[in-house]
């Protein structure tokens, strides 16, 4: 188990930035000198998504003391990761080109786009899928193009009414194709259950042209990129070091952010504490530069301070159970500074039927109102009873599954 003060944790934090400090170099040398369990370090770096950075620093910073087996494994990992990154970028460009030919505007974000904007090299970040933003009114044409490319929605078994409900709450879809990275078209940055209502029209207006893979394409503005990154981290309760590295690296490469406008927009959206939390974690754990005005806001927000301590205490804990964004949590409650957003979050999360509820019964148009009742009965009566019974039979406490994190 990793702890906040362990040598292994020190190595992970030291190598989670593109530029290795002198203290980081010493942490690597101490770890390679026998103080660290490298099985734990490597496993944790894979879980937290920072393995590419760790491997790069091992080769560049301490080649003179790097054991041959570890050197060979590092080279092999970077080679495989680099080829996978190149394929992912090629796939993303192919998808964006196909959408463009169909007259569908799309903006890549997270994944390779964020890797390019934050790290300057898509090979230095790991990613599991390809995200891009579309206009909500272009969902159907987008799905048609992706189907022609061989991708199939995880919700393809739903009928038309169920599909509309699924898309309305989810704000995205995820589509799969054999042997290829999944693609995720978004028309919102978080499920409606999270009650984070971003001005999407403004996001599209502020988009800027940028180069990636030798191509000019539209990217989110730097300020919106940061907002989306902290929103994603908060939505996932900052469970991976990678998402904190994203913030730290992005801040390091974009020192001229227009902070006044960004702070104004997140205040209007009720996302100020979410922004402050992400910035504070990047500063405290990875020495990211943040302006004094933001430091003052963080210090003045006691709830934000408590969330910082919570994330720091749980980030490297092996006992941390996965938790779905669709389950009500104290973390998400306290991450919102406005009571109205908290109440919307609880009500929406408690009553919104999700994909598994939509599949339970074939409710047609006249009975569509029954979905919330099905959701409530399933999640708050049947499921707890089933988990309790399972726990009694197995002798272990029941846990909720985090498998629906992408629904």
Question: How would you sum up this structure, described in words?
Answer:
The protein has helices at 7-14, 22-35, 38-48, 51-61, 68-101, 111-119, 139-148, 160-170, 200-206, 222-235, 241-253, 259-269, 272-286, 292-300, 302-314, 330-334, 339-351, 355-360, 370-394, and strands at 107-109, 130-133, 152-153, 175-176, 183-186, 208-212, 215-219. Helix 1 (7-14) packs across helix 3 (38-48), helix 13 packs across helix 14 and helix 13 (272-286) packs across helix 15. The two termini are 30 Å apart. It has 407 residues and is mostly helical. The model is unreliable at 363-367 and 397-407 (pLDDT under 50). A hairpin with a 2-residue loop joins strand 6 and strand 7. Strands 1-2-5 form a three-stranded mixed beta sheet. The radius of gyration is 22 Å and the shape is globular. It has a domain at 1-66.
Can you tag this structure with a few keywords?
407 residues; globular; 7 strands; single chain; three-stranded mixed β-sheet; disordered C terminus; mainly alpha
Q: What is the number of helices?
A: 19
Average pLDDT over all residues: 88
Order of helices and strands: HHHHHEHEHEHEEHEEHHHHHHHHHH
Terminal Cα span? 30 Å
Q: What portion of residues is helical?
A: 55-70%
Q: How big a fraction of the residues is strand? A: 5-15%
Rg, Cα atoms, Å: 22 Å
Number of strands: 7
Which blocks of ≥5 consecutive residues have pLDDT under 50? Answer: 363-367, 397-407
What spatial form do the alpha-carbon principal axes imply?
A: globular
Which secondary-structure class do the elements indicate?
mainly alpha
Instruction: Report the biggest beta sheet as strand number plus sense, adding barrel if it closes.
Output: 3 strands, mixed
Quaternary structure: single chain
Strand order of the largest sheet: 1-2-5
